[in-house]
Amino acid sequence: FRGCGQSIMQHPVTLRDGYYAESAHIYGFSENGPRAVKDLPTDFIQSEENLMILCYDCHQEIDNNPEDYPVSLLQEYKRVHEQKVA
């Protein structure tokens, strides 16, 4: 998530090593979820193309404020990050 410096490999409070990432859906997982589109195939919804790995706080931010984080913006965040780490 652009601007986030939170480690997903260490708990933010206890500093205990671990895996603290969450899989966030760009297009909503359920038909009532944020950024949902009716009748998208389940295999696409669960595909790498539709998932972002985020810390808990960023996951909550995008899902609680979907009007601020449309599909096109999340896809751009993902594209830029993937190019950066490639």
Brief sketch in words of this structure:
This protein has 86 residues and is of the alpha+beta class. The chain has a two-stranded antiparallel sheet. The protein is built from three helices and two strands.
Structure description:
The chain has 3 helices and 2 strands, in the order E-H-E-H-H. 33% of the residues lie in helices and 9% in strands. It is an alpha+beta fold. Strands 1-2 form a two-stranded antiparallel sheet.
Largest sheet entry: 2 strands, antiparallel
As residue ranges, the low-confidence spans are none
Helical run tally: 3
State the distance separating the first and last CA atoms. 16 Å
> Percent range for helical residues?
25-40%
Number of strands: 2
Oligomer: single chain
Sum up the overall morphology in one term: globular
**Rg computed from alpha carbons, rounded to a whole number of angstroms:** 13 Å
- Structural class by helix and strand composition: alpha+beta
Q: Can you write the helix and strand succession as a string?
A: EHEHH
Strand order of the largest sheet: 1-2
On the 0 to 100 scale, the average pLDDT is 94
* Binned strand content: 5-15%
